[in-house]
Structures are given as C-alpha cells and as structure tokens.
Design brief:
3 strands, alpha+beta, binds copper (II) ion, Alpha-Beta Plaits, 3-stranded antiparallel sheet, 123 residues
C-alpha cells in the first residue's frame, strides 16, 4: 500500500512538472494579412499548410476580412516562418509578396494578381 501511494505521488509530481513545462512556452496569437486570398479554396490551402507547421496550434482563415488568425508557440516557430509558408503556398502575407512558384501552382480562379495588384484595383 505504501509503495503504491509513493508511486501515485511520483506520478502526480511528474504530471505537475509536465504541465509546468507546457505552460512555459507561451502561445502567441497573430493576425496575418492575406490580401490575395479570395475564396474557400484559398482558405483551405492556407489552413492546411500553416496548420501542418511545427509549433502552430491553430490557424483560422477569415476570408472576408483577408486575415489568418494564427496561434503558435514562439519558441518553436515564428511569425516570419508563417509568412514564408503562406507566401510559398501562393499568397501574400503581411508585407511579404506571394512566392511566384507557389502562385503559379494555384487554380486559375484563385489567381487574382500577385502581391497588392488586385487590392489596389479594388480601391
Ligand atoms: Cu481561391
């Protein structure tokens, strides 16, 4: 009985330590401006790519407002890395223009003009 209790204590301490360890890497939230993403296909593509990144907890694209809400661990990835991923998928991310190679692979309906062209036209 005594041994079992000691084991339980040990387990509790271990779980406590793990919880503490997780708490130390703070999750950050960022809104990435994705001006060239126009439809649900674009949203899915970005969510899949960014969601698969190491260190990213959650990504949700708000297509109407051209924003990607990203929650990530700053110790394991960075906003710059997320912007690069979005760019490689074929969309502009904040000030980073879409990567031409990624953009070339997009379906025709999603090619609204690289960088800010489309946005400028709308203004
Ligand atoms: Cu699209």
């Amino acid at each position: 009985m005594k041994l079992k209790a000691a084991r339980m204590m040990g387990l509790t301490a271990l779980v406590g330590l793990l919880a503490l360890g997780c708490g130390q890497t703070k999750a950050e939230t960022a809104d990435v401006s994705i001006n060239t993403a126009v439809c649900n296909l674009c949203a899915n593509r970005i969510e899949t790519a960014v969601g698969a990144m190491e260190g990213v907890n959650k990504v949700q694209v708000d297509i109407e407002n051209h924003l990607a809400h990203v929650t990530f661990h700053s110790a394991r990835t960075s906003l710059a890395a997320i912007e690069t991923m979005i760019s490689e998928v074929g969309y502009s991310a904040n000030d980073k223009p879409a990567d031409p190679m990624g953009y070339a692979k997009l379906p025709g309906c999603c090619k609204v003009g690289r960088g800010q062209e489309k946005v400028n036209m709308e203004l």
